[in-house]
Design a protein that fits this description.
Structural class of chain A: mainly alpha
CATH architecture of the largest domain in chain B: 3-Layer(aba) Sandwich
Distance between the termini of chain B: 37 Å
Largest sheet of chain B: 6 strands, mixed
Number of domains of chain B: 2
CATH class of the largest domain in chain A: Mainly Alpha
CATH topology of the largest domain in chain A: MetI-like fold
CATH superfamily of the largest domain in chain B: P-loop containing nucleotide triphosphate hydrolases
Helix content of chain B: 10-25%
Shape of chain B: elongated
Number of strands of chain B: 20
CATH topology of the largest domain in chain B: Rossmann fold
Oligomer: heterodimer
Order of helices and strands of chain A: HHHHHHHHHHHHH
Number of strands of chain A: 0
Number of helices of chain B: 9
Strand content of chain B: 35-45%
Order of helices and strands of chain B: EEEHEEEHHHEHEHEEHHEEEEEEEEEEH
Radius of gyration of chain A: 23 Å
Distance between the termini of chain A: 15 Å
Largest sheet of chain A: none
Chain lengths: ~290, ~375
């Protein structure tokens, strides 16, 4: 990047700061300030005294700890599944489909996201509930003699989470793959590679920054998801956001809820950091 | 067939809007440096993609090493392609790029390492194994791309205008690098280019292709001095074109051409009969300043002198009877062209029977885009 000369730099500084005001306000008022408040809450009793009790409560109670770990592992699995489903789709769209087909497929990918998440999830409820379409279909073809309940289990939660987050995996991968020169793929074939070699040795390494971006987004969205999990998993879906909700809304224990919120933030930050370390990627590259 | 590496028999490839390759038949001898030369859009890249397996011919047969390979996909063919933009894998270093093909052959790690250092020595890049691709210069990338293919010991190495992106100086040196490399490894090279100087410098054989068909296949000298088609005559190098008509067909197989008030003996490039309208082509390199026996003398007035390094281009105005003519002469620097000025009157001589004659064509047909 070219450095601006001293003179223009000075003029631009004012412009630059002016442009930064809305963003700074947003960051400060909606992100920094509430989190300071959350941290304050998490370290105090209802009476306002300082305490570590909210955190100790979390570590003493196996239900909370298990839910915490379960949510993290579940989210990682969902992230992997969205990658396994999303990458071939992105590869197909960018490298194999004709321009016309590409547009149609892109539209089909984006279309569900014109609807709110709530409605998307309800669609799954309609499909999977005891008197739903799938149950009806199985009875019609004679595979079952009674209504089947497909909701309120881990698979239902997984399906919903993958469905509502796959777009966030596919789009970043498409944007990196579309800069992959087709001749690299042809070169790989020419040197004797199979289709599998092309995917694993050329396309995936090339798309790594996009995959990382997509994975971070899907992981964060999944870990912090509330609607899909509650609707498809029911009251006992054992998701950590549910515990936070319970503390804030059902028990009016904002102090405990804040501690949970901070713990969730730490968890997601640690896992993202760890994921980037393992795949040897820089945050700067992923954010590009 | 022995000694024959690649044989094309009536290969044809049609795209929705044009026939890219039109019944091309040719034979590439084993171990030769074979160039396919033609204007952009002439079908030469398609031909190369057919040989490498990325395009399927609509009809015709392609033999590599005597075996019919029409149905063999590119990853199973013993041909390797150096891409126009090289297509080095940016996520891998030099050694990994070269190892890519070797790994597909299932070689042991130690063998791969050995082969890599050997091929890097061959292309003059010793100790470059760990270098990242984006840290290489244009010429180095070029050589890595060559090494990546050569290490696989292909039957045929295909090159798709690989020097196009280099600057002039580097291109000149890479030409020699390629020529020497080919002589050393002995692999058949099929080199596609629109740059005639690349083709003329490096090749044993050149196939000139235009609008999907072969105009001429011959060695560079033959191609330069004895074009077999109107297109070749105009496409390769500078050429004087003098329009006239056939006066008579001679017993020795040549013809006499009447141009304005002068008549010249010339080689017939195609069949013709007396009175046909024709164009005679004379290379500026074949005209010499001065007079000599056995030659036609042409006197003219210097109109323009342009120095261009190797040669000085001298444009003369002359009269063939009452027809005004412009004649381009290339004078070697050893002949002291600096003494020439505009307005000088001088004689050039043209050896008898050295021009080549083709039937006259309208300009737009003859000059495909350059």
């Amino acid at each position: 990047m070219r450095k601006l000369s001293y003179k223009t730099n000075k003029i631009n500084n004012t412009n630059f700061l002016t442009l930064l005001i809305p963003f700074s306000l947003w960051i400060f008022l909606l992100i920094v300030l509430p989190h300071i408040e959350l941290i304050k809450y998490s370290f105090s009793k209802k009476t306002g005294e300082f305490t570590l009790g909210n955190y100790l409560h979390f570590f003493k109670n196996t239900l909370y700890l298990n839910t915490y770990i379960r949510s993290a592992i579940f989210s990682l699995i969902v992230t992997c599944i969205t990658f396994l489903l999303g990458f071939p789709l992105a590869f197909f769209v960018t490298k194999m489909a004709t321009p016309k087909l590409r547009n149609i497929v892109m539209l089909l990918i984006i279309l569900p996201f014109w609807i709110s998440e709530l409605i998307q999830v309800f669609a799954w409820v309609v499909m999977m509930r005891e008197t739903g379409i799938i149950s009806y279909f199985f009875q019609k073809i004679g595979l079952s003699s009674h209504n089947i309940e497909l909701l309120y289990n881990d698979i239902a939660i997984g399906v919903g989470l993958v469905y509502t987050s796959i777009l966030f995996m596919v789009i970043p991968i498409i944007s990196t793959l579309s800069t992959l020169d087709d001749s690299l793929i042809e070169a790989a074939y020419d040197l004797g590679a199979s289709f599998w070699n092309v995917l694993t040795e050329v396309a995936i390494p090339y798309a790594a920054p996009g995959i990382a971006t997509g994975s971070i987004m899907v992981f964060m969205l999944t870990l912090g998801n509330f609607i899909s999990v509650t609707l498809l998993g029911g009251k006992n879906s054992l998701w950590f956001t549910e515990q936070i909700y319970n503390q804030f809304i059902l028990r009016f224990n904002w102090h405990q809820g804040s501690a949970f919120g901070i713990l969730l933030l730490i968890l997601s930050s640690l896992l993202v950091w760890g994921g980037l370390k393992i795949t040897k990627q820089g945050m700067a590259e992923v954010l590009k | 067939m022995e000694g024959v590496n690649v044989r094309l028999v009536k290969i044809r490839k049609q795209f929705p809007s044009l026939v890219a390759v039109d019944d091309v038949s040719m034979t590439v001898p084993e171990g030769s440096f074979f160039s396919i030369l033609g204007p952009s859009g002439g079908g030469k890249s398609t031909l190369l993609r057919i040989i490498s397996g990325f395009e399927r011919p609509d009809s015709g047969e392609l033999y590599i090493g005597g075996k019919l390979v029409n149905d063999i996909p590119p990853n199973k063919r013993r041909t390797n392609l150096v891409f126009q933009h090289l297509a080095l894998f940016p996520t891998m270093n030099v050694a990994q790029n070269i190892a890519f093909g070797l790994k597909r052959q299932g070689l042991a790690k130690a063998d791969i390492t050995k082969k890599i250092s050997k091929v890097l020595a061959l292309v003059d890049l010793k100790k470059f194994e760990q270098r990242k691709i984006h840290m290489l210069s244009g010429g180095q990338k070029q050589r890595v791309a060559l090494a990546r293919c050569l290490v696989l010991d292909p039957t045929v190495l295909l090159l798709d205008e690989p020097l196009g992106a280099l600057d002039l100086k580097l291109r000149e040196s890479m030409k020699l690098v390629l020529k020497r490399l080919q002589a050393r490894v002995g692999t058949t090279f099929i080199y596609v280019t629109h740059d005639q100087s690349e083709a003329l410098t490096m090749s044993n054989m050149i196939a000139v292709i235009n609008k999907g068909h072969i105009e001429q296949i011959s060695n560079p000298l033959e191609l330069f001095y004895h074009p077999k088609s109107y297109f070749t005559a105009t496409f390769i190098g500078d050429n004087n074109r003098w329009d006239g008509h056939v006066k008579s067909i001679n017993k020795n197989g040549n013809c006499t051409v009447q141009i304005g008030g002068r008549s010249f003996e010339a080689v017939m490039g195609e069949e013709m009969v007396p009175e046909d309208k024709v164009s005679m082509f004379v290379r500026p390199e074949m005209l010499r300043i001065g007079v000599s026996a056995q030659s036609e003398e042409i006197r003219g007035k210097v109109k323009e002198v342009v120095f261009d390094g190797t040669y000085t281009r001298v444009l003369l105005n002359t009269m063939f009877g009452d027809q005004e003519m412009e004649i381009l002469v290339k004078v070697a620097q050893s002949e002291d062209p600096l003494a020439l000025k505009e307005g000088d009157v001088l004689s050039v001589c043209l050896k008898k029977g050295i021009g080549t004659v083709f039937l006259h064509r309208e300009l737009q047909d003859a000059q495909t885009e350059l």
